[in-house]
Automatic annotation (TrEMBL):
Keywords: Fatty acid metabolism, Iron, Lipid metabolism, Membrane, Oxidoreductase, Transmembrane, Transmembrane helix. Belongs to the fatty acid desaturase type 2 family. It is a multi-pass membrane protein. This is Stearoyl-CoA desaturase (Delta-9 desaturase). One of its GO terms (biological process) is fatty acid metabolic process. Residues 1-22 are annotated as: Disordered. One of its GO terms (cellular component) is membrane. It is found in: Membrane. GO terms for molecular function: oxidoreductase activity, acting on paired donors, with oxidation of a pair of donors resulting in the reduction of molecular oxygen to two molecules of water. Its main location: membrane. Residues 1-16 have a biased composition (Basic and acidic residues). Residues 60-279 form the Fatty acid desaturase domain. It comes from Kibdelosporangium aridum.
Amino acid sequence: MSTTVHDRQSRDHTRTEAAPQPMLAGEKSPAELFLVKLFAIVPALALAAAVPLAWGWGLGWTDVGLAVFFYTLTCLGVTIGFHRYFTHGAFTATRGLRIALAVTGSMALQGPIIGWVADHRRHHAYADREGDPHSPWLFGTSAGALAKGFWHAHMGWMFQREQTNAVRFAPDLLADPDIQRVNRWFPALTVVSLLAPAVAGGLITWSWWGALTAFFWAGLVRVAVLHHVTWSVNSICHMIGDRPFTARDKSANFWPLALLSMGESWHNSHHADPTCARHGVQRGQIDISARLIRIFEKLGWATKVRWPRPERLARKLNTTGSAS
Ligand SMILES: [Zn+2]
Ligand SMILES: [Zn+2]
């Protein structure tokens, strides 16, 4: 099956709501649920408890460089790969780029690719309504309900047992043997993602101590920071910020996260035009992911890129001028 067909399908499935397939399929096993909790919480604990401790005695420039490198690589794997390309079909990619994006996105440790894409397509199909896997608005609008909603949208939803039905939401990925393979490799890619910084740090400093500090900063802390930035798009960017475009949901543009999220926090613009390759569509809105897609396009690796169209944007502008 060609990439073009994949992408057309992925666009269709973002919108399809009346498909005969059920929305959910089975439940996570207790072992799977344990692993989700382990990988969501251990890096976060490392971040919270040890950053103040380690600062000053266990952080060198090698650690900083490796952390920035692995953060950038895996963040772009998620934003350009899992999100804009695999979920929304914002462009078509050569087979090499397609696999590279699947691998680097998997190394962000946000779950295997097929489940990630299925969950996110379901999020767009039901955004902020019953059926959305991670809306902060499911419990009401009182202060208590919103606190509960924030926790649910940020992390809590992952600890629920229900699983999105990939047969309904990601049939294009299920039909691709290469993607099936990357999906199965997720445990191995998790190990690679955590150990590669340690190996690099050890070789650069030629010491076990250098390997250990690189594992901590460019492995655990890097994973935790990217987790919380990605999860903030689901929580904060459906609660707080500007809404220059009309969307059917509560998505908002939250500028303070634009750099760290590599353009994903322009989330109101994204929900207004989900298949668009650029999320920061207004003047001055930095979108690093879109810049790299442009470079891929110039290299001939990305084609049929869906760049913003001014007339379409103008139609979607929120003329009531409401913010947050
Ligand atoms: Zn959203
Ligand atoms: Zn999306």
